[in-house]
Design brief:
Layout lengths: L1 E13 L2 E8 L12 H6 L2 E2 L2 H6 L8 E5 L7 H13 L4 E5 L4 H9 L5 E5 L7 H5 L3 H17 L3 E8 L6 H10 L5 E6 L8 H4 L6 H12 L5 E5 L2 E6 L2 E5 L8
Length: about 250
Amino acid sequence: MKVSGIVELSTIDYPKKCSAVVFLSGCNMKCGYCYNYKHITERSYEMSAEEVFKNMDLMFAEALVISGGEPTLQPEGVKELCKLAKEKGFPVKIDTNGTNVDVIRDLVENKLVDYVAVDVKCRFDKYKELTGIDGETIKENILKIINICKENNVFIECRTTFIPTIMDKEDIEEIASTIKDCDMYAIQQFDNEHAYCEEFKKIKTSTTEELLELGKIAKNYIDNVVVRTLDGEFRINNDLMDNNKNNIKNRR
């Protein structure tokens, strides 16, 4: 498989577990705010699943996270990696943009993943402009993935990186009301400093307080809502926000 990088040990990518993170090369979206786009398109190392595990800190890692880019573009490599992880007793999380439902279905139904995180980029009528992907198609895909995970008792997280000037509270309301059956919804702080496109670097990022207000909107539809910022992770509990200080670094 084509790998762009490996983080040997992370405390923020798999909830409540130390994990190794494998970033696979290539993506079928081109989001201008992505801080990882240059790395996953310009860096590519051919590696087997066994070679990936040799580059992990197996002494402390408790789980494997497969990210990108878009890992489902390499279905055979991902499946091989998941099988090896399961043989070694590792729970597996996969990050996806939701474009390849059949790949996720195959992994879930064969019990090769324990956690699926789907990026919901924006309100669906804005998808084409922001990502180049048709919004109605991606909406159907995301709903299918949620159903597949729920039917198979696999944890399903949806998450949105909030881009000021591109998005507003109506985006969060539409997204939350659409993906209301997911197990958790995360609103993530935009990292303008490391954005791929120059135009996005000029956009001022939201404050923690602004994101918490968006979290309250999402809470009207989804019970489990968190806000992730560079200062920490905040869980929205009705009128009370719990702060989990973890120095969150948004990965996608």
